Amino acid sequence: MNSISIIIAIYNRRDELFELLSSLSRQTDKDFEVIIVDDGSMIDLRPTIELFSESLNIEFFRKDNSGPGLSRNYGARRAKNDWLVFVDSDVIVENDYIQNIKKNLETSSCDAFGGADKAHKGFNLMQKAISYSMTSVFTTGGIRGSKKAVTRFQPRSFNMGVRKSAFEKVGGFSEMRIGEDPDLSMTLWENGFTTEFFDNIGVYHKRRVDFGKFSKQVYQFGCARPILNQRHPNYVKISFAFPSLFLIGYILGFTEYFVLGNGFILALYGLYTFLIFFHALYQTKNISIASMAIISTYIQMFSYGYGFLKSWFMLNILRMKPDEAFPKHFHKN
Q1: What is the pLDDT of residue 121?
Q2: What's the predicted TM-score (pTM) here?
Q3: What is the DSSP code string of 140-183?
Protein backbone atom coordinates (compact mmCIF):
# COMPACT_ATOMS: atom_id res chain seq x y z
CA MET A 1 0.00 0.00 0.00
CA ASN A 2 1.38 3.41 -1.01
CA SER A 3 -0.02 5.67 1.71
CA ILE A 4 1.29 9.22 1.71
CA SER A 5 2.17 11.82 4.33
CA ILE A 6 2.81 15.34 3.03
CA ILE A 7 5.35 17.11 5.26
CA ILE A 8 5.68 20.89 5.18
CA ALA A 9 8.36 22.67 7.20
CA ILE A 10 7.56 26.36 7.31
CA TYR A 11 8.90 29.61 8.70
CA ASN A 12 6.56 32.63 8.53
CA ARG A 13 5.28 32.17 4.96
CA ARG A 14 1.58 32.43 5.80
CA ASP A 15 0.34 33.56 2.38
CA GLU A 16 2.32 30.88 0.57
CA LEU A 17 1.01 28.28 3.02
CA PHE A 18 -2.56 29.29 2.18
CA GLU A 19 -1.88 28.78 -1.53
CA LEU A 20 -0.23 25.40 -0.96
CA LEU A 21 -3.01 24.12 1.28
CA SER A 22 -5.59 25.38 -1.20
CA SER A 23 -3.97 23.30 -3.93
CA LEU A 24 -3.80 20.24 -1.66
CA SER A 25 -7.48 20.63 -0.78
CA ARG A 26 -8.35 20.28 -4.49
CA GLN A 27 -6.66 16.90 -4.96
CA THR A 28 -8.54 14.27 -6.96
CA ASP A 29 -7.17 11.66 -4.53
CA LYS A 30 -7.85 12.83 -0.98
CA ASP A 31 -6.38 9.84 0.85
CA PHE A 32 -3.30 11.44 2.44
CA GLU A 33 -2.30 13.28 5.58
CA VAL A 34 -0.65 16.70 5.88
CA ILE A 35 1.89 17.37 8.62
CA ILE A 36 2.84 21.01 9.11
CA VAL A 37 5.87 21.83 11.24
CA ASP A 38 6.13 25.48 12.24
CA ASP A 39 9.87 26.11 12.62
CA GLY A 40 9.54 28.93 15.16
CA SER A 41 7.62 31.39 13.02
CA MET A 42 7.23 34.98 14.20
CA ILE A 43 3.58 35.02 13.11
CA ASP A 44 0.67 32.77 14.06
CA LEU A 45 -0.03 30.22 11.32
CA ARG A 46 -2.91 28.48 13.08
CA PRO A 47 -5.73 30.69 11.69
CA THR A 48 -4.61 29.84 8.16
CA ILE A 49 -4.39 26.13 8.94
CA GLU A 50 -7.82 26.12 10.59
CA LEU A 51 -9.37 27.23 7.30
CA PHE A 52 -8.56 23.77 5.93
CA SER A 53 -9.34 21.69 9.01
CA GLU A 54 -12.42 20.14 7.36
CA SER A 55 -11.07 19.67 3.84
CA LEU A 56 -7.67 18.21 4.79
CA ASN A 57 -6.39 15.70 7.33
CA ILE A 58 -3.91 18.08 9.00
CA GLU A 59 -1.58 17.65 11.96
CA PHE A 60 0.08 20.86 13.16
CA PHE A 61 3.21 21.09 15.30
CA ARG A 62 5.22 24.08 16.47
CA LYS A 63 8.84 23.90 17.60
CA ASP A 64 11.88 26.12 18.18
CA ASN A 65 13.71 27.24 15.05
CA SER A 66 16.31 24.76 13.83
CA GLY A 67 16.22 25.01 10.04
CA PRO A 68 14.27 23.02 7.46
CA GLY A 69 16.12 19.70 7.67
CA LEU A 70 15.54 19.03 11.36
CA SER A 71 11.98 20.34 11.08
CA ARG A 72 11.28 17.82 8.31
CA ASN A 73 12.77 15.09 10.49
CA TYR A 74 10.46 16.21 13.29
CA GLY A 75 7.47 15.86 11.00
CA ALA A 76 8.67 12.53 9.60
CA ARG A 77 8.80 11.00 13.07
CA ARG A 78 5.11 11.84 13.47
CA ALA A 79 4.00 10.59 10.06
CA LYS A 80 1.68 7.57 10.01
CA ASN A 81 2.11 6.51 6.37
CA ASP A 82 4.56 4.53 4.25
CA TRP A 83 5.79 7.40 2.06
CA LEU A 84 7.04 10.80 3.19
CA VAL A 85 6.51 13.52 0.59
CA PHE A 86 8.32 16.78 1.33
CA VAL A 87 7.23 20.00 -0.35
CA ASP A 88 8.44 23.53 0.30
CA SER A 89 5.95 26.01 1.65
CA ASP A 90 6.30 28.22 -1.45
CA VAL A 91 5.04 25.67 -3.98
CA ILE A 92 1.64 24.95 -5.50
CA VAL A 93 0.72 21.45 -6.66
CA GLU A 94 -1.61 20.42 -9.45
CA ASN A 95 -4.93 18.72 -8.71
CA ASP A 96 -3.67 15.26 -9.70
CA TYR A 97 -0.40 15.48 -7.75
CA ILE A 98 -1.25 12.78 -5.19
CA GLN A 99 -3.00 10.63 -7.77
CA ASN A 100 0.03 10.69 -10.09
CA ILE A 101 2.46 9.91 -7.26
CA LYS A 102 0.48 6.80 -6.38
CA LYS A 103 0.25 5.70 -10.03
CA ASN A 104 4.02 6.03 -10.41
CA LEU A 105 4.66 4.08 -7.22
CA GLU A 106 2.53 1.19 -8.49
CA THR A 107 5.07 0.51 -11.25
CA SER A 108 8.29 1.78 -9.64
CA SER A 109 10.55 -0.03 -7.20
CA CYS A 110 12.43 3.12 -6.16
CA ASP A 111 13.06 4.14 -2.57
CA ALA A 112 12.90 7.88 -3.23
CA PHE A 113 11.61 10.08 -6.02
CA GLY A 114 11.37 13.67 -7.11
CA GLY A 115 9.79 15.84 -9.75
CA ALA A 116 10.34 19.05 -11.63
CA ASP A 117 9.59 22.60 -10.61
CA LYS A 118 8.19 25.19 -12.96
CA ALA A 119 6.58 28.61 -13.10
CA HIS A 120 2.84 29.05 -12.72
CA LYS A 121 1.06 31.35 -15.16
CA GLY A 122 0.08 33.53 -12.20
CA PHE A 123 3.68 34.17 -11.11
CA ASN A 124 5.15 37.60 -11.78
CA LEU A 125 7.64 38.18 -14.60
CA MET A 126 10.69 38.11 -12.35
CA GLN A 127 9.66 34.80 -10.78
CA LYS A 128 9.24 33.33 -14.25
CA ALA A 129 12.66 34.61 -15.32
CA ILE A 130 14.28 33.09 -12.22
CA SER A 131 12.43 29.83 -12.83
CA TYR A 132 13.84 29.74 -16.36
CA SER A 133 17.38 30.26 -15.07
CA MET A 134 17.04 27.49 -12.51
CA THR A 135 15.60 24.90 -14.91
CA SER A 136 17.00 25.66 -18.38
CA VAL A 137 19.25 23.22 -20.19
CA PHE A 138 21.57 26.18 -20.92
CA THR A 139 22.01 27.13 -17.25
CA THR A 140 21.70 24.12 -14.93
CA GLY A 141 21.68 21.50 -17.66
CA GLY A 142 17.96 21.02 -17.04
CA ILE A 143 18.62 18.79 -14.02
CA ARG A 144 15.61 20.19 -12.16
CA GLY A 145 13.11 19.91 -14.95
CA SER A 146 13.75 16.97 -17.23
CA LYS A 147 14.15 13.23 -16.86
CA LYS A 148 16.37 13.19 -19.94
CA ALA A 149 18.82 15.64 -18.36
CA VAL A 150 20.11 13.29 -15.69
CA THR A 151 21.39 9.76 -15.45
CA ARG A 152 20.86 9.54 -11.69
CA PHE A 153 18.33 11.92 -10.25
CA GLN A 154 18.84 13.76 -6.95
CA PRO A 155 15.39 14.60 -5.54
CA ARG A 156 15.15 18.07 -4.01
CA SER A 157 13.12 18.91 -0.94
CA PHE A 158 10.74 21.27 -2.75
CA ASN A 159 9.25 18.13 -4.37
CA MET A 160 10.66 14.94 -2.86
CA GLY A 161 9.28 11.60 -1.74
CA VAL A 162 11.10 9.02 0.38
CA ARG A 163 10.03 5.61 1.62
CA LYS A 164 9.72 6.03 5.38
CA SER A 165 11.74 2.90 6.11
CA ALA A 166 14.62 4.15 3.93
CA PHE A 167 14.42 7.60 5.49
CA GLU A 168 14.69 6.12 8.97
CA LYS A 169 17.52 3.80 7.94
CA VAL A 170 19.78 6.70 6.90
CA GLY A 171 18.73 8.95 9.79
CA GLY A 172 16.75 11.46 7.73
CA PHE A 173 18.12 14.88 6.82
CA SER A 174 21.56 15.68 8.18
CA GLU A 175 22.77 18.67 10.20
CA MET A 176 23.22 20.71 7.00
CA ARG A 177 20.95 23.72 6.70
CA ILE A 178 21.75 24.30 3.01
CA GLY A 179 22.25 21.44 0.57
CA GLU A 180 20.54 19.02 2.93
CA ASP A 181 18.40 17.52 0.15
CA PRO A 182 21.17 16.43 -2.27
CA ASP A 183 23.03 15.29 0.85
CA LEU A 184 20.10 13.00 1.68
CA SER A 185 19.89 11.72 -1.92
CA MET A 186 23.55 10.75 -1.99
CA THR A 187 23.35 9.21 1.49
CA LEU A 188 20.48 7.05 0.21
CA TRP A 189 22.64 5.92 -2.74
CA GLU A 190 25.52 5.08 -0.42
CA ASN A 191 23.19 2.83 1.54
CA GLY A 192 21.97 0.96 -1.53
CA PHE A 193 18.69 2.80 -2.04
CA THR A 194 17.48 4.02 -5.43
CA THR A 195 15.99 7.30 -6.63
CA GLU A 196 13.84 8.11 -9.63
CA PHE A 197 12.45 11.11 -11.51
CA PHE A 198 8.67 11.21 -12.01
CA ASP A 199 7.89 13.50 -14.93
CA ASN A 200 4.19 14.04 -14.16
CA ILE A 201 4.39 15.44 -10.61
CA GLY A 202 5.87 18.87 -11.29
CA VAL A 203 5.15 21.65 -8.81
CA TYR A 204 4.93 25.42 -9.27
CA HIS A 205 7.81 26.88 -7.27
CA LYS A 206 7.77 30.58 -6.41
CA ARG A 207 11.44 30.83 -5.40
CA ARG A 208 12.76 34.31 -4.61
CA VAL A 209 10.81 37.42 -5.53
CA ASP A 210 13.74 39.72 -6.31
CA PHE A 211 17.22 39.45 -7.77
CA GLY A 212 18.98 40.38 -4.53
CA LYS A 213 17.44 37.50 -2.58
CA PHE A 214 17.99 35.17 -5.52
CA SER A 215 21.68 36.10 -5.61
CA LYS A 216 22.09 35.34 -1.91
CA GLN A 217 20.28 32.04 -2.30
CA VAL A 218 22.38 30.69 -5.18
CA TYR A 219 25.55 31.99 -3.51
CA GLN A 220 24.72 29.76 -0.54
CA PHE A 221 24.08 26.85 -2.91
CA GLY A 222 27.52 27.41 -4.39
CA CYS A 223 29.12 27.41 -0.94
CA ALA A 224 27.36 24.15 -0.11
CA ARG A 225 28.59 22.17 -3.12
CA PRO A 226 32.27 21.72 -2.08
CA ILE A 227 30.99 20.65 1.34
CA LEU A 228 28.83 18.03 -0.37
CA ASN A 229 31.82 16.99 -2.48
CA GLN A 230 33.79 16.30 0.69
CA ARG A 231 30.95 14.34 2.23
CA HIS A 232 30.25 12.31 -0.92
CA PRO A 233 33.45 12.09 -3.01
CA ASN A 234 32.10 9.27 -5.20
CA TYR A 235 29.53 11.61 -6.73
CA VAL A 236 31.69 14.61 -7.63
CA LYS A 237 31.20 15.92 -11.17
CA ILE A 238 33.24 18.45 -13.13
CA SER A 239 29.98 20.16 -14.08
CA PHE A 240 29.64 21.40 -10.48
CA ALA A 241 32.51 23.80 -11.20
CA PHE A 242 31.08 25.21 -14.45
CA PRO A 243 29.62 28.39 -12.88
CA SER A 244 33.03 29.14 -11.33
CA LEU A 245 34.70 28.63 -14.71
CA PHE A 246 32.05 30.91 -16.20
CA LEU A 247 32.92 33.63 -13.67
CA ILE A 248 36.67 33.24 -14.18
CA GLY A 249 36.22 33.30 -17.94
CA TYR A 250 34.25 36.52 -17.74
CA ILE A 251 37.01 38.18 -15.71
CA LEU A 252 39.63 36.92 -18.16
CA GLY A 253 37.53 38.30 -20.99
CA PHE A 254 37.70 41.83 -19.61
CA THR A 255 41.40 41.41 -18.90
CA GLU A 256 41.97 40.28 -22.48
CA TYR A 257 39.98 43.22 -23.82
CA PHE A 258 41.64 45.99 -21.78
CA VAL A 259 45.19 44.58 -21.77
CA LEU A 260 45.45 42.99 -25.20
CA GLY A 261 42.72 44.87 -27.00
CA ASN A 262 41.14 41.57 -28.04
CA GLY A 263 37.46 40.85 -27.43
CA PHE A 264 37.28 37.20 -28.46
CA ILE A 265 36.30 35.84 -25.02
CA LEU A 266 33.71 38.55 -24.43
CA ALA A 267 32.30 37.83 -27.89
CA LEU A 268 31.64 34.26 -26.75
CA TYR A 269 29.75 35.59 -23.75
CA GLY A 270 27.79 37.79 -26.12
CA LEU A 271 26.77 34.74 -28.11
CA TYR A 272 25.75 32.98 -24.91
CA THR A 273 23.64 36.00 -23.95
CA PHE A 274 21.81 35.91 -27.28
CA LEU A 275 21.29 32.16 -26.86
CA ILE A 276 19.73 32.65 -23.42
CA PHE A 277 17.50 35.46 -24.67
CA PHE A 278 16.10 33.62 -27.68
CA HIS A 279 15.72 30.31 -25.87
CA ALA A 280 13.89 32.02 -23.00
CA LEU A 281 11.76 33.89 -25.53
CA TYR A 282 10.90 30.60 -27.23
CA GLN A 283 10.09 28.96 -23.89
CA THR A 284 8.06 31.78 -22.35
CA LYS A 285 6.74 33.69 -25.40
CA ASN A 286 7.38 36.92 -23.48
CA ILE A 287 10.10 39.42 -24.37
CA SER A 288 10.15 40.93 -20.86
CA ILE A 289 10.74 37.54 -19.23
CA ALA A 290 13.42 36.75 -21.81
CA SER A 291 15.18 40.02 -21.06
CA MET A 292 15.08 39.44 -17.30
CA ALA A 293 16.21 35.84 -17.84
CA ILE A 294 19.55 37.22 -19.05
CA ILE A 295 19.97 39.09 -15.75
CA SER A 296 18.87 36.15 -13.60
CA THR A 297 21.15 33.78 -15.51
CA TYR A 298 24.23 35.95 -14.99
CA ILE A 299 23.30 36.46 -11.33
CA GLN A 300 22.96 32.72 -10.93
CA MET A 301 26.26 31.88 -12.61
CA PHE A 302 28.27 34.62 -10.90
CA SER A 303 26.80 34.16 -7.40
CA TYR A 304 26.95 30.37 -7.44
CA GLY A 305 30.40 30.44 -9.04
CA TYR A 306 31.78 32.84 -6.43
CA GLY A 307 30.28 30.81 -3.59
CA PHE A 308 31.78 27.60 -4.99
CA LEU A 309 35.24 29.17 -5.38
CA LYS A 310 35.18 30.67 -1.90
CA SER A 311 34.09 27.40 -0.31
CA TRP A 312 36.58 25.31 -2.30
CA PHE A 313 39.43 27.62 -1.26
CA MET A 314 38.48 27.59 2.42
CA LEU A 315 38.04 23.81 2.56
CA ASN A 316 40.90 22.67 0.32
CA ILE A 317 43.56 25.39 0.58
CA LEU A 318 43.00 26.76 4.08
CA ARG A 319 41.97 23.27 5.26
CA MET A 320 39.10 24.59 7.34
CA LYS A 321 36.36 22.29 8.57
CA PRO A 322 32.99 22.94 6.90
CA ASP A 323 31.25 23.94 10.13
CA GLU A 324 34.09 26.36 10.92
CA ALA A 325 34.13 27.90 7.45
CA PHE A 326 30.33 28.16 7.19
CA PRO A 327 28.80 27.84 10.66
CA LYS A 328 25.41 29.11 9.45
CA HIS A 329 25.22 26.16 7.04
CA PHE A 330 24.85 23.75 9.96
CA HIS A 331 22.53 23.40 12.90
CA LYS A 332 22.91 21.56 16.16
CA ASN A 333 20.66 18.67 17.09
Answers
A1: 80
A2: 0.89
A3: TTTTTT-GGG-SS----TTEEEEEHHHHHHHTSS-SBSSSHHHH
